[in-house]
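Task: complex structure prediction.
Instruction: return structure tokens for all chains below.
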Amino acid sequence: MFHEESIGLAERALKLAEARGADEVAVHVQSVTARQVRFSNNRVDVVKSWIQIELEMQIVKDRRIMIVSTTNITEEGLARFVESAMERISRVPPREVYAPLPEGPFDYPVIPGLYDPRVDEAQEALVDAAARGIEAALSEGAKRVAGTVRSYAGHECLLTTGSATVCERFSRVNMEVRALADGLSTGHGATCSRSLDGIDPERAGREAGADAAASTKVVDAEPGKYDALFGWSAMATLLGMFGYMASGLRVLMQMSPYVEKIGKQIGSELITLVDDPLAEGGYSSRSFDLEGYPTRRNVIIEKGVLKTFLHNRITAAHFRTKSTANAGWVYPEPWYVRMKPGDYDEDEIVAELRDGIVVKNVTYLRFQNYRTGDFSAVIRDGVFRVKGGEVIGAIRGLRLSDNVLHLLRDTFATSKTTRPVTHWWAEWGPPVETPLLAVRQVGFTAATV
Amino acid sequence: MEFDELISLVDRASELARRFDAEYFEVRAQADLTDGLFMRNGVIEAFFLDSSSGLSVRMIVNGGLGFASTNRPEELASMVEEAYRSALAASKARKRVRLSAEEFRVDEFKSPFVTDPFEVPLEDKVEFLRAVDAAGSERGATARVLLLLSSRQFTHFINSEGAKITGDVRRVTLRTTLTLVSGARSTQEFEQPGGSGGWEIVEKWRMEEKVAELTENMKERLEKGSPAPRGKMDVVLGPKVTGLVAHESTGHPYEADRILGREAAQAGESFVKPEMLGQRIGSEVVTVIDDPTIPGSYGFYMYDAEGVRARPRVLMKAGIINEFLHNRETAAEFGVRSNAAARASKFNREPIVRMANTYIAPGDMSVEELIEGISEGVYIKRFMEWNIDDRRYNQRYVGSEAYAIRGGRLAEPVLNPILEVTTRSFYSSIDGVGKDLEFEAAFCGKGDPGQSVPVWTGGPSLRLRGVGLGGV
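Output:
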């Protein structure tokens, strides 16, 4: 069995903690073989590989919660580590608000399409994908191409004192291509899948190359407010962040614009946002959370109304509700955020913009105030001016300066097609499946000197 | 894995690596132990203990660079073979990787300490956090989020050219985030002192005092703050802001791997080109240094992750671009020696070009003297929001604690002044440098997979003439 060693290891860790006085324990073991090809200036820089197993535990004693992780899984090493954890746990104060780990046994959903055995041995295929992505970008007019292709294959298991026992195999392949027609004219393409055949290096390369080439024709644009269309890579950043801000702990920390907004209309009726870990073949679908609950589909925002925060058992207790099966180790977190598609083709949205800006990628998103949702972000890899419903050229030097709630509220169009997207700068949340999104009167600023 | 076991695994892995026809190999073991206390509004939300240890191998075969790592001793041979196969695969698709010639030694380094942070009773750490939390709550801070991290990093490195370096560094940092809500208005602040060494450094932070002062200031700004002025004016920036600027707009663009394009798809490239060495980028009063060897610093090390001995790097000297940050690969490309900027965040990460402790050198002016010379302007003492484009040229810093300046004196608090400026304009407009150099701890992110490494950002107060404050 693929998971025999991991389950054995989890059992050993659980028994060690119980024997040393733990009241409750959840053990997560992940075994992965990962590979990566990094390239820049049209050539491969380095090929990397990892063979790794990691063990994480949540240990509870007298309402004290400790999160531990170790890569040292030798018999002696693990025993020493658990002993050290148990020696410390009683020395922190107990929690006032507490809920026990859920009691199973549970029936976990079987989600098709999460594992492709070919990803285990993907090294040559990754080098080949890199070459295809580079070629495709060059063929569109790029001069230099950089990027990464990554593969992960393995399994994870969870064992808890609440009778949760579950293992799941996974594989993931993703690629991003950044094309440069000159130092300032860039484009970005991304592709991801659970299977080796599911990624499309040519498309990622073509889109990156085409946007880079198109960015060489520059027109002027003053800072101000414009209607904006956010492209695929941009939406990986924005939609991930929209989902992440629903974490119950972020709300408790006053670090989310969704504070005190449950049941309120925070977005346009076009905004329906779902955390959907059950999506078949979903890039980050999964069947269990780290407390042992079977995952489920949670509607975060429905037709613009904020329906729920995402909870683990502890934040659920704070809010006097039930867990939404989104437990990570500390923060409840979305697994796979999907936005409901709309009715528009991309061209139709551009036409609707009239006088606007197309933003292909959003990076470096930082908040002035998480609670109000005021933020700014660097826009790049294709920022195009639209006039009279048509793209008239690329613009440079502007920065997205707006507010999360405004983006949700003034959305006026979403595309009918969606894509799974993730990339290096999508740092705020999980991978997403997103349509294109268009918003009225978005703020753009510029360096004044 | 215990340190002795890691050292013996490094020896075994290097024996295995010698059997391959590689032009170069290195084996690095690294163990990172971190304990963390996460407190929200006086309650310990979670207590962490993270132990990560293992090995990695880098190999150059036919000019191709391969990297492999494992935390499983039984996979040692597979790891070395993977590194070889990876290097071979890479060799088919690029020009030859060369490394600069360096002198290597057998040596070790440690961060001195009086009290091992891991030996401090947890009860004392909790008590410390409670006191910091109380300093905020008693003054009305709506939310206080504290993350106290104690860490120890052990490294053992061998390469095929004779290096054998062992490092052992302990660090402590506290990330504090405060929110104050008043009616429909709210404001936030963060503060992060940190350093290498023992628990004794925590006492120097005066965190209770700092949080009390911050909270009072947040209240004042919500009650009395007026909209920030816009337009061209003189601005004074506090050390918290200038330290970040040094890191973001001198440190990053002077990383030679960015200049060469290796990070183009991730963190980005640089507006700095190789031929810009020796060119003026700022006024004569500005010097920017990156120095890993500062005792007690958060980014402290004496040898980098390629076994090269560390030294201070003067990146900008009196306004002139003076030196880039190099590892051995970029140094070879530039025809220079490495200046020991290779760092790896964990055992399973490739060493890449990184900063350590980047700061603007102090001058001799007091803050009062800097402000005295301004008839109308803004003093931005602290910030919350910032970002910078991937060439590190167009950047934005939004003030949190900030004041109007009138007639050479501080006036009322102003809300969220926005400094959005180019790197050249920023450094060229500086005409006054304070003597109040301060450092703050941070984690700098770069690389793929991401690598978060501890750094200090530092600077004195600076006076900028005729820059624009903006917004929409």
